[in-house]
Amino acid sequence: MPKTLKETFAAKLPEELLKVKELRKNHGSKVVGEITLDQVYGGARGIKSLVWEGSVLDSEEGIRYRGRTIPECRTQLPKAPGGSEPLPEGLFWLLLTGEIPSEQQVRMLSADWAARSDLPTYVVDLIDRCPQDLHPMAQLSLAVTALERDSSFAKAYARGMNKQEYWEYTFEDSMNLIAKLPSIASRIYHNVFRQGKTTPVAVEKDKDYAFNLVNQLGFGDIEDFTELMRLYVTLHTDHEGGNVSAHATHLVGSALSSPMLSLAAGFNGLSGPLHGLANQESLNWLQKAKAAVGDDLSDQAITAYIRSTLSSGQVLPGYGHSILRKTDPRYLAQREFALRHLPNDPLFKLVSQLYKIAPAVLKEQGKVKNPYPNIDAHSGVLLQHYGLKETRFYTVLFACSRALGVLAQLIIDRAYGFPIERPKSYSTEAWARMVKAKL
Ligand code: AMX
């Protein structure tokens, strides 16, 4: 019998802990950077202050998961029988352990998640009582927060557990959370967009995570949609530690709040339009653009529409990034999928034309540091193609994926015994004194 994920992580942990111990013992006092006042006032941009094992973002190349690029992950991670996109289960395994799992190990993880997927009745009732006009992300956050009642970490802490055990309870809670997300998400979907007239079908215990997500939403008969969701969930998991959802989960987790409360914090951050809500905003924008230009996808018509958005003081959703300075490879992976599966979709044609035109128009402004598309410029077009057209739901799908990355790191945080986070703050007057400025 091959090792389970928990056994694999536990077996590697002593070696990893020793590496960190030696690094800090021999180099702990070395200087690793300096910061400017602009960085302090500029959203801590580029300040090196976090440890994040799963992925590192290079401004030119994009994300690498445990050293592997997206194209490498797409070929190396195990697939579903007959499928060609990677299974997100494999990426979760890679993020947590640094190892590519075998097919059998991935099947074991799919089965484990499916077995943990049932929702407690009080969570179902809570979701069902939400008003339909409460944003689906707020409903998701409520449901995840409510799962706190069943947190094995919180219960063990209240009993008085040994610090060495923190990661094991965090692991159990994280596995339960990930497993339940498709059932929560689809319940919200049916309530809000099908007026509660339909309910999600049961999780199929012998199927993978992405299949069950698509199937519970009601699209299980579209095979290509399941393949898309395998890719989608894999691509949205992790983008190193400083983005809002990752950092918020990590920060709240550093107070030893349960994985449920930590993840809910991350989801609340993901709900912002400058972060995860950009996928909703992006498709809304594309639809408005399509309504305005009709079939005229000429360079002039598209340029004029982008300019009208920018001149009204709005951002172009799906473009720009705090760290990336090139086209997001996650955008390119989705583009490749679209070229293969839906080359003639009218909105995909608009997205392609925008990819050609928008960077130059954004550059005209002279202030945008990265005029190229990010992941959110593409995802909505793929979802709407398969019939999932409710843009208000899109960030929930992002969340079902992002949970994998931030919870993998939360398990590592607890295994490494990271302390509570507490950066130093100063008033403007105090900063001015520090740089010898007169106010
Ligand atoms: N459209 C219009 N203006 C933009 C822009 C865009 N897509 N991207 C950046 N700018 C503007 C900024 O608003 C800022 O203007 P200001 O000086 O008047 O305030 C200026 O250009 C400089 O910003 P920046 O340093 O290039 O970006 P940033 O690190 O401050 O912000 C981001 C990054 C993503 C928030 C920004 O590019 C943006 O708002 N993009 C649109 C929303 C979006 O796609 N978000 C999703 C990001 C990925 C994700 O988290 N899911």
Automatic annotation (TrEMBL):
Pfam families, alphabetized: Citrate_synt
Catalysed reactions, semicolon-separated: propanoyl-CoA + oxaloacetate + H2O = (2S,3S)-2-methylcitrate + CoA + H(+); oxaloacetate + acetyl-CoA + H2O = citrate + CoA + H(+)
Matches recorded under InterPro entries: Citrate_synth-like_lrg_a-sub, Citrate_synth-like_sm_a-sub, Citrate_synthase, Citrate_synthase_AS, Citrate_synthase_euk, Citrate_synthase_sf
GO molecular function, one term: citrate synthase activity
Biological process, per Gene Ontology: carbohydrate metabolic process; citrate metabolic process; tricarboxylic acid cycle
GO cellular component: mitochondrial matrix
Gene3D superfamilies: Citrate Synthase, domain 1 (1.10.580.10), Cytochrome P450-Terp, domain 2 (1.10.230.10)
Top-rank taxon: Eukaryota
Active site residues according to the UniProt entry: H275, H321, D376
This protein's UniProt keywords: Transferase, Transit peptide
Family: Belongs to the citrate synthase family.
Name the UniProt record assigns to this protein: Citrate synthase
Protein species of origin: Cladonia borealis
